[in-house]
Amino acid sequence: MQKTTIASHYVRTLLLSLKRANIDYQEHLRHAGISEAVLDDERARIPYESYVTLTRSAWKALGDENLNLTETPLKLGAFRYTGMLMLHTPTLRHALKLGMDFHRYINPGYEISLTEESNGALIEVSLHSPALDENHLFAEFILSGWHRFSSWLIDRNIVLKHVSFDFPSPPHEAEYQYIFPCPRDFNQDSLSIRFGAHYLDQPIVKSDDDFAHYTQQTPAGLLIVPADDDSYSAKIRRQLDACTDCRFPSFDEVARTLHMTPKTLRQKLKKEGIIYQEIKDVIRRDSAIHYLTLYRMPVADIALRVGFTETGAFIRAFKGWTGVTPGAYRH
């Protein structure tokens, strides 16, 4: 798994579901290796591996794949059976239709439909109890989950054309840049994702063994951008991830490797709502959190690993990224 982090918002939202069920959430935080003190700052970041562990722990404790965000719980194993049905169909079109039909029998949390239109395929979702999903975790899981699993089934990243949300822009909207890397609109009539209809004709290429491995890792692939995402920011990130100790090339050098002028690349990134410096900062931030969480390396050594020659500059940058110093984050 990449050195990826996720906003502490997602952890706090999961903990609310556990609290509503009168479950001791502290035990689950400890199991995931997450310090409760880190969650006090909204800017804090959590290693994605830790969030996956916490989610799996919450699923088991709640006995509910809907994470206590619907009126009626969804029994554990529902995703597995839905996925097994979808796996044994000829194309993505057949898989989605069968999966959605089966979903209507087993999941009372929401309605979902697939529509083919002149400008693409549309997956539309309507929650039955949106008031229970006040922080929009369930809505995000549904949209990203159907998109990510569909991409996995055909072994191709389905490039999203547009995503609509039936709620206002949330405080953590910056995360959507990575979860839904495409144009997004809020306060719409429904939750939906739109993509090219040609993907529906793609064959299902995964095997039973592939699916067994996938379910063992779930929900690892549901909220982070797929490794083969076709956005320019993802292409740049793949280049930078390969750099030693975060020694990044200049923007002009990156543009040359993508066979375009710096001006053109800058325009492409602007459409995606990001700049080169932000991509570099995200990699440095996530790498720093990775080393702080999983290794007992001195802060000075971590500073060098993430591209800082001065430890003091690294500490100031880290506090700006997360709201706490590296030492406080580690402890």
Task: Provide an overview of this structure.
The chain is built from 15 helices and seven strands. The protein is α+β, with helices and mostly antiparallel strands and 331 residues long. It folds into three domains: 5-62, no CATH class; 78-217, no CATH class; 232-330, Arc Repressor Mutant, subunit A, CATH 1.10.10. Helix 4 runs antiparallel to helix 5 (92-106). The radius of gyration is 20 Å and the shape is globular.
Write the layout of secondary structure elements.
Elements: E1 5-7, H1 8-20, H2 25-32, E2 45-47, H3 48-62, H4 78-87, H5 92-106, E3 110-117, E4 120-127, H6 137-154, E5 160-164, H7 176-179, E6 184-185, E7 191-195, H8 208-217, H9 232-241, H10 251-257, H11 262-271, H12 276-294, H13 299-305, H14 311-322, H15 326-330
Parallel strand pairs: 5-6
Antiparallel strand pairs: 1-2, 3-4, 4-7, 5-7
Helix pairs in contact: 1-3, 2-3, 4-5, 9-12, 12-13
The termini sit apart by 24 Å
Write down the overall geometry: globular
Spatial arrangement of strands, main beta sheet = 3-4-7-5-6
How much β-strand is present in the residues?
5-15%
Helix content: 40-55%
- SSE arrangement, N to C: EHHEHHHEEHEHEEHHHHHHHH
How many DSSP E strands?
7
Low-confidence stretches: none
Please give the count of helices: 15
Q: Sheet bearing the most strands, described?
A: 5 strands, mixed
Averaged pLDDT? 90
How many domains? The number is 3
What is the rounded Rg? Answer: 20 Å
Structural class: alpha+beta
